[in-house]
């Protein structure tokens, strides 16, 4: 395991920000910490980086306990913080060189790494610009370049796409995928379930400082019993037909309201069976769609609350 966090308890005075928080991250994973604002994601990252003290628990990175002065371990880690943190009196290139220089002292090697990092986030043409002259999206990209220039093996991204335009957001997600393909292990926090679903191969869903559930997105959905839904719009269907659909072996339940039929299915085979049945009965309908459960549905199932509405 690259990261082992065991039962961390972190309090800010009366507030318990991490409540026996535990995760394990294996080499090569893109691991998602998904939770609403205030659920403890940033606090968890700061504890893992040894930037914050905690009351109880144990944190190992690369199999070793992490501490504020473990520079050998820190050299192997990259951090892209939530708040853009740059030196405003340095140019783009100088910023990357400065942050890279915290870990790499050899000047020639650093020059190459800085060049690579600029290329990676496609910011070369702005190399002589000061951060104040950059758009929000470019500042974010520079922030990323500063965090990854020293080619770390483990990289923490803390909500890197908040307040970013869709194009830069896609660039950032694509870049993270590339870093992972090149061998980096990634820990990614977000309250955007779509991103986490797209990007991460394993996910812990958090709320109020606790990990509620961990697994791949398929495992998370399966473990709370969520299945696909077949939705048939603009259909006029009689009760006996509804009963026949309900009685199909791989259909778990049926709802009919406002000319819309929703069939909760156990196995995908049921989709064909229902459609065949409707066609066979000569029923007319508008559109057919299949709705897959989302991580928000998982969150809702466990907490009774919406992920996106909670602030
Ligand atoms: P997230 O990253 O998921 O939004 P945080 O880790 O920032 O969550 O915050 C977790 C909880 O701890 C929140 O209730 C937040 O208000 C509180 N908190 C965070 N930082 C501090 C701090 N420095 N002092 C007191 N409370 C804090």
Which short descriptors sum up this protein?
311 residues, alpha/beta, 6-stranded mixed β-sheet, 4-stranded antiparallel β-sheet, elongated, binds adenosine-5'-diphosphate
Describe this structure in words.
The chain is of the alpha/beta class and 311 residues long. The protein contains 11 helices and 14 strands. The strands form 3 sheets. The chain has a 6-stranded mixed beta sheet, sandwiched between helices. Helix 6 links the parallel strand 7 (154-158) and strand 8. Helix 3 crosses helix 4 (107-120), helix 3 (92-101) runs parallel beside helix 5 (136-148) and helix 4 (107-120) packs antiparallel against helix 5 (136-148). The longest helix is centred in the middle third of the chain and has 16 residues, at 166-181. The chain starts with a strand and ends in an 8-residue tail after the last helix. The relative contact order is 0.14. The model has no long low-confidence stretch (mean pLDDT 93).
């Amino acid at each position: 395991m690259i990261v082992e966090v065991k039962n961390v308890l972190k309090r800010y005075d009366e507030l318990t920000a991490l409540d026996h928080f535990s995760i394990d991250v294996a080499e090569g994973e893109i691991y998602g910490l998904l939770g609403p604002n205030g659920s403890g994601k940033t606090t968890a990252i700061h504890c893992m980086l040894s930037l914050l003290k905690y009351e109880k628990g144990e944190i190992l990175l690369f199999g070793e306990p992490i501490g504020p002065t473990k520079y050998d371990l820190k050299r192997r880690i990259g951090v892209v913080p939530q708040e853009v943190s740059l030196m405003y009196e340095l140019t783009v290139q100088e910023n990357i060189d400065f942050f890279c220089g915290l870990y790499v002292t050899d000047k020639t090697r650093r020059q190459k790494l800085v060049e690579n990092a600029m290329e990676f986030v496609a910011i070369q043409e702005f190399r002589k610009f000061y951060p104040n002259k950059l758009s929000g999206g470019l500042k974010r990209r520079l922030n990323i370049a500063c965090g990854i220039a020293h080619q770390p093996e483990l990289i923490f991204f803390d909500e890197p796409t908040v307040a970013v335009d869709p194009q830069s957001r896609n660039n950032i997600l694509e870049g993270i995928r590339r870093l992972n393909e090149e061998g980096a292990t990634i820990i990614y926090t977000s309250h955007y379930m779509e991103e986490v679903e797209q990007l991460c191969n394993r996910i812990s869903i958090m709320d109020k400082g606790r990990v509620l559930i961990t697994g791949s997105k398929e495992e998370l959905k399966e473990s709370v019993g969520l299945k696909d839904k077949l939705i048939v719009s603009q259909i006029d269907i009689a009760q006996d037909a509804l009963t026949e659909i309900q009685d199909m072996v791989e259909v778990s339940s049926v709802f009919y309201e406002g000319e819309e039929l929703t069939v909760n299915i156990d196995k995908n085979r049921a989709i064909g069976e229902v459609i065949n049945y409707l066609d066979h009965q000569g029923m007319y309908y508008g559109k057919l769609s299949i709705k897959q459960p989302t991580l928000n549905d998982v969150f809702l199932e466990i907490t009774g609350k919406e992920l996106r509405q909670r602030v």
